[in-house]
Amino acid sequence: MNDGFKQRLVGAGILFVAAGILLPIFFDGAGYRERHLDSAIPPPPAEPQLVTITPENKPLPDTSTFAPPSEPVTVAVMPKQVAAEVAKQKPRISERNDPPALDQENIPVAWSLQLASFKDEDNAKGLSRKLIKAGHKVYIRKTGDLIRVFVGPDIQKSKLVELQADIQKEFGLDGIIVRFTTR
Q1: What mean pLDDT do residues 112-140 have?
Q2: Measured in Å, how far apart are the chain's first and last C-alpha atoms?
């Protein structure tokens, strides 16, 4: 062995002996004190007192017998002005042959009248404004490059057939009746 290596071994041995003697002196735990901090946790709330409630149900009235007939009701006659106004309006009440229906997913089947398809959105909005002024329910859908104008929806197809004829007379537009979707 050479002298340099022997000196290194002796130096390492001295360091280990010094560490064994000095470390217990410095780390004896005499300087350690447990810290006592004030608790920031509030005290628990007082437990509520349980209250027992006894229900006081009133007995239901006896319905085994029929109620006596009530007094006859007097109906006021419609004033002449109201009757004349109703006659002017001529309400249309008609029975339809196509009652509302449900599809396989129990969703009501509704129909719309597609009137036109445009590439320019301003044209579609112009037509929709005209139709709204005429009193129709109008909505616009954009699919791809085309903007389509619809009237409706309605759950009875026969109403849209009549509406299609009215719009043909009023605006000169031939529409097609399509199934209404929310997309």
Answers
A1: 89
A2: 91
Q: How far is CA 116 from CA 12, 147, 149, 152, in A?
A: 97, 8, 5, 14
E strands, 40-183, are 111-118, 138-143, 146-154, 176-179
Matching residue, tokens 């509704």: 110
Q: State the pairing for strand pair 138-143/146-154.
A: antiparallel
- Joined tokens for residue 52: 């027992």
Checking if the pLDDT of 50 tops 70, the result is yes
Token pair of 39 as six digits: 């608790």
pLDDT band at 74 (very low <50, low <70, confident <90, very high): low
* Phi, psi (degrees; rounded to nearest 5) at 108: -60, 135
Letter for the amino acid at 10? V
Distance of CA 161 to the CA centre of its chain: 33
The reported pTM is 0.47
